[in-house]
Amino acid sequence: MLLGWASFSAALPVQAASPIAAAVSSAARPTIVLVHGAFADSSSWTVVAQLLSAHGYPVVSVANPLRGVQADAAYTASLVRSIAGPVVLVGHSYGGMVIARAAQDEAQVRALVFVAALAPEAGETVAGLAGKFPGSTLGTALADPVTLPDGAQELYIRQDKYWQQFAADVAEPQAAAMAVAQRPVALAALNEPAGAAAWQRLPSFFVYGTADRNLPPAVLRYMAERAHGREIREIPGASHALMASHAQQVAELIEVAARTGAPAQP
């Protein structure tokens, strides 16, 4: 016999509350909102989230739709507005495009953290920034585009290329699991111009690896310096997936941003 919705809801345990409710429960520290990029999913933040949670930070990991910069930013901003108290927004890769726009009109966002992430100015695109300096090998690692029923196309990294392309410093079995779970990005999103960038008014922090094959380290350095990053950390030999391979260092920088951006406690 099927339970009615009311009966089902009543049967849920108290600890089954949403991540947003859990984030609201702690006012002492800002909530850390993690935004994954293309060819990843929310689970890519697992260890970072565990480290932050262990230090008392409420954490929410966004299921980034990867459909378009403005739409994804609006989605993320809606989630931010549902959280009581200050927020630190963290973006990986394409997720940097999203947080730079999502935070623009959200006063509760106190700091931004770019993890191997794009930090665009208005009018810039993913494709344009990725090609600004030589070094990316992403184009040769992509599978043929998948055409959707509406005619739009989306992109995946070939599973046999994923380890070396995206996560070369992650153990091969973990990289293989990441390849299977990767979320595709809409091709149109890579050519959609960015809107106003919140890094121009918010303290921003940057961390990236010197062995990134998706985004050339030169462009990551260029964007970090252009944004006058409060702190810029370059990890020797780190791949594009440094939130998985160097979770401790990523979490440490997020905590620095949280302390910098948080309001003074009475």
UniProtKB/TrEMBL annotation:
Annotated signal sequence range: 1-16
GO molecular function annotations of the record: hydrolase activity
Key words, A-Z: Hydrolase, Signal
Annotated InterPro entries: AB_hydrolase_1, AB_hydrolase_fold, Sec-Metab_Biosynth_Hydrolase
Ranges of residues in domain AB hydrolase-1: 32-252
Protein name, UniProt field: Alpha/beta fold hydrolase
Protein's organism: Duganella fentianensis
